[in-house]
Input
Amino acid sequence: MRASHNWTRRAVTGATALALFGLTSTAASAATGIQGSGRADPVPSGFRAQSTTWTSPTHGWVLGTAPCSTGECTTVVTSHDGGGTWSAVAAPPAPLAPPGEAGITEIRFADAHHGWAFGPDFYSTSNGGHSWRKASLPGDGQRVISLATDAGVVYAAVSPCAVGVPPYECEKPNSVWRANVNHGKWHRVPVNLPTKPAEGVVIALHNRTGYILVPGTAGDPDTLFASTNGRRWSTRPSPCDKQGAEALVDIAPMPHKRVALLCVGDAGFSKATKHVFRSTDTAKTTTDAGITPRLGIQSTLAATPSGSTLAVASVSSGSWLYRNTANATWNTVLDEADGGSGWNNLLFTTNQDGFLIHAPAAGWTGEGTLLTTHDAGATWTPVPISS
Output
């Protein structure tokens, strides 16, 4: 699952108490349906990470789980010093969701106040995670597929089919919606997604420039839209080799209309071709950025804010992380013989610093380790999440 892997590069200032997706102001935090104590607490022992989000290089949150009196409880922790120290805030009243079941798997924040926990259920906060409210989905949405936020705007892709309905039985198209973080009214994004059953919708943002992607499957065409203002959208060609059954699976936007694109195809036993492209004109045209080593199939792509470094996280029978520094040569920086525990939320907060979750807590091993880099992804080390 992939929502946006880009951190919010511009914090929203002057946040108001206006409602967003059914949020109330902090002053109304005792109202029915809000979960939280309104304070920061020590991190529970045994915390395991599932998803992370950062609104600046120093301020971030991690969604996960920890042992509690009833077994395992959903937990959210936050750091104000780049991951050096942590404290627990409130968590949405929902479990981490196994595939096809109710609950949440991802967390995103737009600024120090406004955040969302989703996938497939939907919760929101307007006070930095000190309380959470079940949020209403736009249109006829029944579950949230992906969500991304940047520059004071939030996008959500929703499915009209209920939780638990297999993709092949969901014959209605997904839709994408846009709202201003401070004003909160949803507006449907004027793009037509494929009418065939499609589970994955990728939303990637950099400031006002946005991309909406639905990967093609079994040789079907990829669907890619781009916009520089969030209101007028146009299609973009896929650089993938459809004769080789490649699909455009991820996209990493950068400043000045630059963007990187990831195609995956020719899958075999634990291997696939992972071909990366770069563009300087919002994906109207592309140039070759090389092919990663073949180990790994399911993959995501991230870029440093300047675009000088690209990284691909991939998983199949194991988990691998590949890195490229503005040339066509890809190097293996992480090689985990973990049976396919996988990754989540590969992201860079500066040109040197970044985060990545190994073996997310909702996965089959669920070790939930947060990793960090301070050398543009060349090396990664575990982050102790404790008080």
About this structure: The chain is about 0% helix and 40% strand.
